[in-house]
Amino acid sequence: MNLFSVRPSLFAYAALLFTLALGAAPAAVAQIQEEEEEEPILITEDELNQLLVWYVDQKYEKVLFKAIRYTEDDEQSKHPLPYLYMAKAYLGIHNSDDSDLRETYEVDKLKALKNALKYAAKFVKKDKELEFVPQEQEYLEELRKETVIAAETEMDNDKYTKAKSYYKYLTTINEEDPGAWMMYGTVFLALKARRDADNAWETARNLLLNQQARGLTESQLELLQYAFVMTIELLDELGDRATAREFITLGDEFIGGDREFEAVKRSIGG
């Protein structure tokens, strides 16, 4: 056998292996990086299902005791759903007929409702990719209705600071709620904080003009109607008829024909 005739093929084979190795290396590195970048499982599906089962069975305290542990863990606290289940459990307690449960969680003082709002706001903030919020609109609407009732009660009692906290939560749960922003501003006006009022009203006005009040839920539309009436009445009471008429003009476009709105408009000659 001619040794010199074998050498070129050996060299070619070695070169081929070297070339393949160079080509495979980036792929291997990419695979390793991809595996490292995969999101860790913060809370298992079984654990989340257990929270759901307890919630459906109205075992609200079990939900709270378990979910709070997730929210206190450095890694698991990043997951939005424990906050959602805590919010749901607190609203369940707020609406419960169980006298012992209501007493324990001070439902009559609206403590359970406030906690429901607190954790619902955290749920929305944690769900940065909007993976869960769109699926929970029915619950958020129920919470919004209860909150609007509580806020209006505080307004009727001239408890403006308490009312402000409710409207602030509503703007956090849904940043595109024009009625919540308008009432947030009106409460600031009642508290003699005109600059803050103007800022909140500007947000409400921009939302209305940009979105034309499309996509509002039933409670959001009712809140918007209430907000126009309350804002116009308070501005008129404070002697600022020019701004009151600006709100009348804006209201004509979005809630014109509403009985209370038309009544307050007539009362100030709008």
Q: Helical region count? A: 13
Rg (CA only): 29 Å
Total beta-strand segments: 0
Uncertain residue segments:
1-8, 10-14, 16-21, 32-37
What does the model show?
This protein is 76% helix and 0% strand. It is built from 13 helices and no strands. It has helices at 3-37, 45-56, 60-72, 81-94, 99-104, 111-126, 137-156, 160-173, 178-190, 194-211, 218-237, 241-255, 259-267. It is elongated. The termini are far apart.
What's the topology here?
Elements: H1 3-37, H2 45-56, H3 60-72, H4 81-94, H5 99-104, H6 111-126, H7 137-156, H8 160-173, H9 178-190, H10 194-211, H11 218-237, H12 241-255, H13 259-267
Helix pairs in contact: 2-3, 2-4, 3-4, 4-6, 6-7, 6-8, 7-8, 7-11, 8-9, 9-10, 9-11, 11-12, 11-13
Provide a quick synopsis of the model:
The protein has 270 residues and is mainly α. Helices cover 76% and strands 0% of the residues. It has 2 domains: 42-131, no CATH class; 160-270, Alpha Horseshoe (Serine Threonine Protein Phosphatase 5, Tetratricopeptide repeat).
List keywords for this structure.
single chain; mainly alpha; 13 helices; Serine Threonine Protein Phosphatase 5, Tetratricopeptide repeat; 270 residues
